[in-house]
Amino acid sequence: MVRVSQSKSAKVVGVLALQGAFSSHTKVLDSIGVSTQEVRTPQDLASVDALVMPGGESTTMSQLLESSELFEPIKKLIHEGLPVFGTCAGMILLASKIIDGRDDQVSFGAINIEVQRNAYGRQIDSFEADINVESFDSPFHAVFIRAPRIVKADGSVEILAEFGDDIVLAKQKNVLVASFHPELSHDKRIHEMFVKEI
After folding, report:
1. Which fold is adopted by the domain 12-196?
2. The dihedral of CA 104, 105, 109, 113: what is its sign?
3. Which of 57, 79, 88, 134 is catalytic?
4. d(CA 123, CA 184)
5. Which of the residues 128, 181, 192, 197 is marked catalytic?
6. Best CA proximity match to 99, nearest among 86, 74, 117
7. Is 181 assigned a catalytic role?
8. DSSP E strands: which ranges in 58-172?
9. Is 127 helix (H, G, I), strand (E, B) or coil?
10. How would you class 32 by CB atoms within 10 Å of its CB: exposed for 0-12, middle for 13-18, buried for 19 or more?
11. Coil, strand, or helix at residue 93?
């Protein structure tokens, strides 16, 4: 696959647009002056310098990644160092292990965490909470919707925020993951943090 080179001032963030809350991520990135590209086919990856994997339904997204022939190209790019940010279902897909996933569910194995799907209950159990994020000078208001949780992370994973005893924001090399939906908050700092890594 040929990557289109970009000038340092014109980075393009791809947003996986197969299913889920991709348009909200696009709006946040647009609002902070970042060019975006919706990713639906392998060809769409050629022009991106980073990728956001949104929330949604992780098993459906897993199936769509394979049927669209995006899974292998994305996996290759992530392991070559493409910066990627997964939120909620996106975090599940990036995890090294899904402890309650379906047998046919695939993941990228891009960050050394084990995740539990729908850890806080059903849609009706969704909630919001202020969390303290490493390097932020004030709390971040996080929206948890049928949220997964990180049940285990190895020593190579940097823990950036916790809710109670649960890790809810973490980073390993080029991979950033969140249990919650930062795109649904009015606070843009987590997206800005990701963009700085590109």
Report:
1. Rossmann fold (3.40.50)
2. negative
3. 88
4. 15
5. 181
6. 117
7. yes
8. 84-87, 95-98, 111-116, 127-131, 140-144, 149-153, 158-163, 166-172
9. strand
10. exposed
11. helix
Q: Which single residue is written with the structure tokens 């992780």?
A: 58
Active site annotation includes 80: no
Taking only the tens place, the pLDDT of each residue in 75-95 is 999 999 999 999 999 999 999
pLDDT in tens, 28-76: 999 999 999 999 999 999 999 999 999 888 888 889 999 999 999 999 9
Q: Which residue has the tokens 């929206």?
A: 143
CA–CA gap between residue 197 and residue 6 (Å, rounded): 15
pTM: 0.90
CA pair distance 116, 196, nearest whole angstrom: 29
Q: Is the dihedral of CA 115, 190, 145, 83 positive or negative?
A: negative
Q: What is the rounded CA–CA span in Å between residue 1 and residue 43?
A: 9
Instruction: Give the burial class of 77: count Cβ atoms within 10 A of its Cβ; 0-12 exposed, 13-18 middle, 19 or more buried.
Output: buried
pLDDT in tens, 104-151: 667 899 999 999 876 665 555 578 999 999 999 999 999 998 888 899
Name which residue leads in pLDDT, 155 or 117: 155
Cα–Cα distance for residue pair 106/89, rounded to 1 Å: 12
Coil, helix or strand at residue 46: helix
Catalytic position from the list 79, 183, 186, 192? 183
Determine the pLDDT at residue 121. Answer: 57
